[in-house]
Amino acid sequence: MQSVKVWDPVVRIFHWSLVLGFAANATLVSDHSPLHLWIGYGITGLVLFRILWGFIGTYYARFSSFPPSLSAAAGQLSDMVSGNKRSHRGHTPLGAWMIYNLLGSLLMIGLTGYMLTTTVLANANWVEDLHEICVGWAELSVVLHILAVILESRRTKVNLPRAMITGRKEIAVE
To answer: Diameter of the chain by CA atoms?
Structure first.
C-alpha cells in the first residue's frame, strides 16, 4: 500500500462544514427560523467558494482532475460488476458525477431559498415547491453518496472516510 496525499485542508474543511450545515438545516433547525436562513447562506457561500477552489486549488481539488465522463463512469460500473479493484487517487468517475450533482443541487437550494425571502416571491408556491424538490433530491443524493462511500471502501479496501479526515489515501501500488 502507498499513502498518497489527496485532499487538502480546504477540501476537508469544506466537506465537513457542508455536512454539518446541511444536516442541521435538514434535521434540527426549523424551516422558518432565521438560523435556517443563515445556515443556508453559509452553505451557499461554501459551495461558491468550493467552485472557485475547483479552478485555483490543489491538483485533486481542481475540476480538471475529475471531469464528468460517461465512459469513465461506465468503466467504473463495469469494474464494480466484474470485481476489478482499480484504485483512483482522487475522485472516482461516479464520485465526480456525485460532486457535480451535489454542488448544483445545493446552489439550486440556495437560490430558491433566497427567492423565498424576496417580497415578490415570498408567497410563490412554485418556488417553495422547487425548493423542497431540490432539498429532497439533495437528501437522496447524500444517502446514495454515503452508501457508495461505504461500498467502495469495502470493495476497493481504501478507507474513503478516513481519507476525508486525514487527507491521505492508502492505495494499492500498481
So the answer is: 59
Per-block mean pLDDT, blocks of 10 residues, the chain (174 long): 92 97 94 94 98 97 96 94 87 96 98 95 95 97 97 92 94 72
Instruction: Measure the CA–CA gap between 134 and 109, rounded to whole angstroms.
Output: 6
Sort residue 157 into left (φ over 0), alpha (ψ -120 to 50) or beta. Answer: left
Grid cell digits, residue 36:
435556517
DSSP 8-state secondary structure symbol assigned to residue 25: I
Cell of 37: 436562513
The torsion angles phi and psi of 89, rounded to 5 degrees, stand at -65, -45
Radius of gyration of the chain (CA): 18
Q: Which domains does the chain have, with CATH numbers?
A: 2-171 (1.20.950.20)
Q: What are phi and psi of 156, to 5 degrees?
A: -95, -10
∠ CA 60-61-62, nearest 5°, is 90
Interior angle at CA 169, CA 168 and CA 172, nearest 5: 145
